[in-house]
Amino acid sequence: MELLIQILTFILIISILVVLHEFGHYLPAKWFKIKVEKFYLFFDWKFSLFKKKIGETEWGVGWLPLGGYVKIAGMIDESMDTEQMKEEPKDWEFRSKPAWQRLIVMLGGVTVNFLLAWVIYSGLLYSNGDTYIPADSLKYGILVDSVGQKIGLQTGDQILAIDGKKSTKFSDASLDILLGDEITVSRDGQTLTIPIADEGKKDLLSQGRGFLSYRMRPIVGRTTEDSGARIAGIQSGDLITAVNGKTVTYYSEFLELMNGYETRETISISADRGGALRTFDVTLSDEGKAGIAPSVDDLRVTDSYGLLASVPAGFNRTIKVLTDQVRQFKIIFNRKTEGYKQVKGPIGIVEMMPESWNWGFFWGFLAMFSVWLAFVNLLPIPALDGGHVMFLLYEIISGRPPSEKTLERGQIVGFIIVMGLMAVIFGNDIWNIIKRFL
Predict the structure, then answer these.
(1) Residue 247 is part of which domain span?
(2) Contact at 8 Å (CB) between 10 and 16?
(3) Mean pLDDT, range 321-350, rounded to an integer
């Protein structure tokens, strides 16, 4: 059931983004009186799951869930339908329209993707505010594993800046470290600057997804249903002070102690509740768990936004997401970091989906992925929107359009590039699955 929810969440997100992106092309095309022959969600190679012709446009759903498309008359695109191009141009064809109109049509999809993300981020900030854990003022410092230690970080460090820029949100710190060259930390009252080598980034990408976290007090956030902790009477807000008489200061210490006990074993957990010390006999589960989740309420801060303030804040959030995605190419194409091996395709993305429905995740991921699609589609590869934009800008600047033969060859080259990238991405997904069984 969990896998089904993950798959359906991903398909719903992709479907919304594809339909809105293609409407971004469809609407200006119709506005400029250009004939749109097809509008498809997913690709209908060989056959379609559904199709219906309404007016001059065939609307349908393909069977291959790798995107979608609109087929615009008089345009050389990925369909490589050159027969129509051999005829004399018609008034309602794409090629008959002024270059500026064609440019608007081609930019329509990415414009809708950007605006969608802006609207979603603005709405989330207005309704929920911006809740985050400050990176530069962590009360108890960071928590790093062995991979984080390899690059020079230590548990308890306070991150002050990355590449000289103040690190504000902890959620951004991991990416900033991967993209940065040096980290400035406070350690035992001293300020240290730690260089980040490409070899260290390679380890972080391949082994250290959780290399960086934050220390927190062992305050109970919640107990799981039918867990030993709940049955014993442990409540939210309790501060764990000891396990079987061993003092606990941080939640990470509590987890380390728990790893040393057997399944179904009964242990003694001491906790402070409102200034009174209590002791609970907790029977662990078959997995050796007590059923206690920590609270980070004492670390979080929330910035609230009114309606007017949420609009520019949503725009800034969209720009930051876009900027971060552009910056990631620094490590993806770096041979030393081998970041390209960590690029996820549809299989990897499905695994990122929550196992139960989560509206907060849905809207946040929808906005982030919308920005990603806008960026990818603007890459100057002929098979993508950015390739068409590149040729149109050439036409506007030079005053003459590229030849049809150039456009056809460009589409072929672009298609080969896109298919090659897809092969690498799917290969990464499949290899990551195989590695789990090795």
Answers:
(1) 220-294
(2) no
(3) 68
CA atoms lying within 13 Å on the CB side of residue 406: 11
Would you say residue 208 has pLDDT above 60? no
Kindly list the distances between the CA atom of residue 15 and the CA atoms of 106, 345, 365, in Å, as whole numbers in the listed order.
20, 16, 13
Is the pTM of the predicted complex or chain greater than 0.90? no
Residues 389, 103 contacting (CB under 8 angstroms): yes
> Of 253, 271, 294, which marks where a domain is finished?
294
- Measured between alpha carbons, how far is 311 from 297 in angstroms, rounded to an integer? 27
Q: Residue 426 pLDDT > 90, yes or no? A: no
CA-closest candidate to residue 169, choices 178, 157, 159, 179: 159
Q: Within this chain, do residues 146 and 80 fall inside the same structural domain, yes or no?
A: no
Would 90 be classed as within a structural domain?
Answer: yes
Convert the pLDDT of each residue in 110-127 to its tens digit: 999 999 999 999 999 999
Query: Which of 283, 303, 323 is where one domain is finished?
Result: 303
| Domains contained in the chain, number | 3
* DSSP for 82-117, written as a single string: -TGGGSPPPTTSGGGS-HHHHHHHHHHHHHHHHHHH
Q: Are 197 and 182 in contact (CB under 8 A)?
A: no
Say whether both 6 and 118 belong to one domain.
Answer: yes
**Pair 201, 178: CB distance under 8 Å:** yes
